[in-house]
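pasting for ref
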Amino acid sequence: NRGRQNVASYLALDLNIDWRIGADHFESLLLDYDVASNWGNWIFAAGLTGKRVSQFNIVKQSKDYDPNGEYARLWCPELAKVPNQYIHTPWEMPPDVQERSGVRIGEDYPAPLAIPPGYAFGGGGRAGGRGGGGRGSSGGRSLGAPAGKRPQGAYGNGRGGG
């Protein structure tokens, strides 16, 4: 469930892509699929319940739940040789470290699609590196796109704003 919440937060709130696309994709892949759990969590993550919006700091979540990068390395084998200090933020590796690690960001492993403001990639930040995981509801910026030109999902953002 934590993984779904992180993906849903990133997709719907950081990238501004329609949450229904993610919910549908998860429905097609989950082995333990449950209608209420899947769609309910996606609706909540998209901020459609009228309750607080939980926008996750994905890097902080990764550090909290996979401190040594074992899970990341298991599912992203191209990161196998990345030093621990960069496993959660491989795009921050200097070129010489990328070379030694056998991974070139943007070629062997994708560059990040968006880095929302307020993320504490180096640790610290609003939550001080402990608890929380959210960072408020300010929008992010897409790399390579001018300010205000964030990527839109096929159906807008699913929150009535397009």
